[in-house]
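Running this now, will post back.
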Amino acid sequence: LYPMPLLPEKNAILNRNTTVVLNSTVIDDCSEFVENASVEWYDENWDSIANGYNTTWLIPGDYPLGLHVFYVNATKTHYDRGSNSTTWYIYGWSEISEISPSSGSEFSAGLTVAVKCTITDANTGSPLPNYPVKFYKNGSLQYTGATDANGVATWQWDTSPELPGWYNISCRIENNSQMYYNVSKELAYTLIRIRRPLKIVSI
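Update: finished.
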């Protein structure tokens, strides 16, 4: 028997905590389709993940990230066992879990305000070090940085030139193929008020 995995396609990107369709056909040595064979799907450790020609697999939320080998086996009475393999990328979900200062915070102009965004794995809650983060003020890009070991990226906002009023401060993250992450929550924002004291210039 010759099992042929069809879906997902080779090197497809699959995300943790999602259900994917697994589809295969089985042929014999005459290239004839074989029905009613027993089809089993395995991960690279030969742990069973599903069975059947057309089935589904719920990818665990903590499945290791990166490129992995998966196997499909087929057996049937009066046939030799057949095996084949394919490769899929497993991606995690990244999210912005926190932004600070909290919305409604107020600061006097001239202060340097540390704007912090925390990036975590949406399934495991673990911090994501070295994840790129972009910071915006009223929709205009101000700074691009990366998270530290605790998953926190920081923009030191110099408020000296700012006019008094409210500012929409936000951070944004993107899909990251080098780290094997797709974004589940890409944007977070906070509203910050900058105050300037009145100055009497003449009486």
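The longest strand covers residues 82-100. More later if anyone needs it.
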